[in-house]
Amino acid sequence: MRRVLLLVLGILIFTSAGMSAAQSGERIKIIFDTDFVMPPQDDSMALMLAMQSPEIEILGITTVAGNDSVERATSDVLRMLEIANQTAIPVHRGADMPLVHEKSDFAVREYGRWYSNEPPPAPPGGYANKKAAPESAVSFIVKTVLTNPHEVTLVAIGPLTNIAQAIRADPGFAKKVKRMVIMGGAIALLPDGSGNITPNAEFNFWVDPEAAYVTLRSGIPIELSPLNVSRKSALTRHWYEKMVETDTPLTRLLKVTLGPRFENEPDRLDFMYDQIAVASLIDPALVSKERLYVDVNIEHGISYGVSVGGRKLWPGAEGARQVDVQYDLDWPRFINMFVDRIQTPLAQ
Question: Are strands 287-296 and 307-310 parallel, antiparallel or unpaired?
Fold first, then answer.
């Protein structure tokens, strides 16, 4: 009998320790830092998932230059909040350029308009009536973390410029962040670890390598969602059609913006990047992880912006910290959850 009681007690303790935020009733407080562009960009679909997930409480959205200018990121996300009936969420405009990285001929030829200062194009349905808050992104991030110590998770799915500036702005900031989930980097040590902007560099880290360097070395508890895990995803026309079976403002937006891709290329396959980072916050069991030392090359040469991961420290990376690195994905579980959340009618 005593053995049975001990076994039951052990199961209860294990179950309690492994409970998710949803099971415990505790919502995950996040700041959503993003180089936002409307669908079919992954930032917008990641925000849809976060807004449609009762496990998450979005304290605010901060914008940064990356996929496009910070002006477009801000304009598009304001409109998205109107479409999603989430106008109570504040938006704070952030960095319009990386810390050091300057516009180049290569940047212009390749993907992204982070260097642009042109007026943003009108988003679907026209410019939002909702306005960005007057407080800057960095000020909002620092103030929110310091007034809610060890309670706020930073979800950073664009270049890390705002986060690095927040770290530099207050010496106590990093120690008061609960944790951070970053979509960025590509780790050659693990499968599928090549880059997507240069042969070895991932786009977000390449746009602002210095900010990634500062952030990864800050001591904030970090979970990295790199290209390695993104490449385990496969958004096809089949999953898109399931996503839009239910008629909601979000699925109507997807039909207008994502639908033409699959109409023109029915056999196309798209990776899902930022969506996985958000989903792993909701359900950690979706991803497999390994704890590695991760650092970023900030020398202006052939490997600028390349992230490097190792199981032990190596020469030149003495200040690197260990982070949890995602490398595999339970794709069926993830995509079914994503589709289910996107289809859910919006709260009134």
Answer: antiparallel
